[in-house]
Design goal:
Structural class: alpha/beta
Number of domains: 1
Radius of gyration: 17 Å
Shape: globular
Helix content: 40-55%
CATH class: Alpha Beta
Number of strands: 7
CATH architecture: 3-Layer(aba) Sandwich
CATH superfamily: P-loop containing nucleotide triphosphate hydrolases
Order of helices and strands: EHEHHHEEHEHEHHEHHH
Length: about 220
């Protein structure tokens, strides 16, 4: 088997610029990187009926709801049931398998729910995996979202949750940095040959959590 590849996980809310950073990494890094993430490994693989229709077992897989916050702004949330968590685990193990085969991987990720990161951190144990936080102010995200096919309130719904864990190897603000500058910062981090620590620190934290919380049950 070849040496495992490097994994870069870009975690941030919708419209933060993760997919643009992905493309820049693919275009500008000397070594090839496979681009994947929630869309490719989960949402594009789920039967359309769970995304578009009201089916009897929808809450076993995934569903959405729209509410309002205290100020009356819409919140469009995505929820995952037990079978949805199976899809999540499959996505995480696919990322690991790609890396174990010697591939470099850059992942467009969004920690929709608190149990996601314990599962991802556990699966990536033993790999050179960087966790990069991709930020932008909520006002910027919602302005960007107007030109995208997102339901109103998508970014607002998970804005607080996605970065709640607060541990990263690198944090980037796409309202301040260009996409190229973001990719350059990630390249510099990797070229310094610094060992990533964020996932290790998260594993240590999650090891102290009750099993039920860590597994999202």
């Amino acid at each position: 088997m070849p040496n495992p590849g490097t994994v870069i996980v870009l975690n941030g809310p919708s419209a933060a610029g993760k997919s643009s950073i992905q493309r820049e990494i693919q275009d500008s890094f000397e070594q090839p990187y496979l681009a994947t993430g929630i869309d490719q490994l989960m949402l594009h693989m789920v039967p359309d009926r769970y995304l578009l229709q009201d089916v009897p077992d929808k809450k076993q897989v995934l569903w959405t709801d729209t509410t309002k916050d205290a100020q009356g702004a819409p919140l469009h949330r995505v929820h995952f049931g037990p079978k949805g968590y199976r899809f999540l685990d499959g996505m995480h193990h696919t990322i690991r398998s790609l890396a174990l085969c010697g591939n470099n991987v850059v992942v467009d990720y969004l920690a929709f729910e608190q149990p996601w990161l314990p599962r991802l951190a556990g699966v990536l144990d033993g790999l050179r995996a960087y966790l990069v936080g991709v930020h932008a102010p909520l006002s910027v995200l919602e302005e960007r979202a107007t030109s995208r096919p997102y339901p109103a309130g998508t970014a607002r719904a998970h804005y607080e949750v996605v970065h709640k864990h607060g541990i990263y190897d690198l944090e980037l603000d796409t309202s301040v940095l260009s996409i190229k500058e973001c990719a350059d910062a990630i390249r510099e981090l990797i070229h310094r040959q610094e060992n990533p620590t964020a996932f290790e620190r998260l594993r240590s934290r999650f090891a102290k959590m009750p099993e039920a919380s860590a597994l999202g049950r």
